[in-house]
Specification:
Strand order of the largest sheet: 1-2-5-8-9-10-11-14
CATH topology: TIM Barrel
Shape: globular
Strand content: 5-15%
Radius of gyration: 22 Å
Structural class: alpha/beta
Number of domains: 1
Largest sheet: 8 strands, parallel, barrel
Order of helices and strands: HHHEHEEEHHHEHEEEHEHEHEEEHEH
Bound molecules: phosphoenolpyruvate, cobalt (II) ion
Oligomer: single chain
CATH architecture: Alpha-Beta Barrel
CATH superfamily: Aldolase class I
Length: 470
Amino acid sequence: MGDGRPRPRARSDRKDVMMEDWTPTSWRERPLAQAARYPDDAALRAVFDAMSVLPTLVTSWEIEALRDQLAAAQRGELFLLQGGDCAERFADCRAEPIVAKLKILLQASMVLSYGTGRRVIRMGRLAGQYAKPRSSDTETRGGLSLPAYRGDLINQTDFSPEARTPDPRRLLTGYERAALTLNFVRGLVSGGFADMHHAEWWNLDFAAEAPLSGDYLGIVERIKDSLALLETVTGRRLEEVRRLDFFTCHEGLSLDYEQALTRRVPRRTGWYDLSTHFPWIGNRTRDPGGAHVEFFRGIANPLGVKIGSGLGSDELLELIARLNPRDEEGRLTLIHRFGAGRIAAGLPPLVEAVRRAGKKVLWVCDPMHGNTLTTASGIKTRRFEDIRSEIEQAFDIHHAAGSLLGGIHFELTGENVTECTGGARGLTEDGLTARYESQVDPRLNVEQALEMALLVARRLKSNGRKKKGG
Ligand code: PEP
Ligand code: CO
């Protein structure tokens, strides 16, 4: 860092040339949406300084490997699966929920690989998905108004002035919890746990009686048979399937947190946000003139942006121009989240505008965030059928436009929660209270997530057949 020695030229040199007017702090001059109001600037500064010298959570090598894979997904060679909690909780930094989440992501990715015949990029909304945008800055109960809960990185859920006041020490705790989570996940995926020879280790006990578990187990058996056959024919054991790549992502909402983990690295130029492999800009913070777009335009990582109703084609092209001015492959992922009732009107003009401008993006469907509704009794939920319908429509719209849907973004958990209605087991609104745990958005439970993966895989398989048949 800044030792004055000449650096070998790396590909991100190009970015430095364009980024003369950008610094890691230039976002501080722009309007900051969804800001947490810290009462004590000096305390925030102290935490920021402490974090700025701690080791980073991911490396630029991993980030560059991901960029190459996302570029391949853009070309239709790979498929992206993003999934995890709406909001990770510090208290869930425990072995069981992490293993369960990893299991369902591995299961879903295997089903998708089987359906697509394509390798799947696995990306968990984890190890940093701790900050949440809210529709209102405050929450009022019984005449008392307090700051809204903004995720464990910022404040606490309890409804008291102490709990709701943003506390900068939580940034440091978030960093530590992310590090613990990542350390555990890395150990699992690089060791025997990820071994495809033993995909049965990923089975979740309570999912054994799930209505579609037979379909899943059939796929596992077929994959194991194919592996065994290949190993018999080649006469060697396929070591490559014993470990796998796994990437992390989160919404880059707290720019204090992201900036503290943004560094230059040896032998590359440009600035990397080393809190995660893939940060994304949320639907509420994607103002092209706002602080979040300013910060992330200067970051070397591949980026996501959530887009939905209310975004015009011109504004989308402006966002693309700011975030990917050189039209680099693998740099920009557009994650659309319209809702089953709005995607048919909302998505086609955006796909057409991007196609006409000839811009390289990876299109991903988030079928969750446009489909949130509140039941008569006041419970936030999502219907399995709406989620499924949005995915089906997304495939149709991209297909009709000569574009490609290259990934899916789910909110899911590895546990047997009751937060979304529907699915093969037919969970009803009355059943939602049995095990509703999310503090923010409702997630697919493990059975619903697997069923959704099976449906997407089936759809991708039939797309593949259509293509081959002309
Ligand atoms: C989220 O992903 O949890 C989220 C808040 O999404 P969006 O920005 O699309 O509303
Ligand atoms: Co959410």
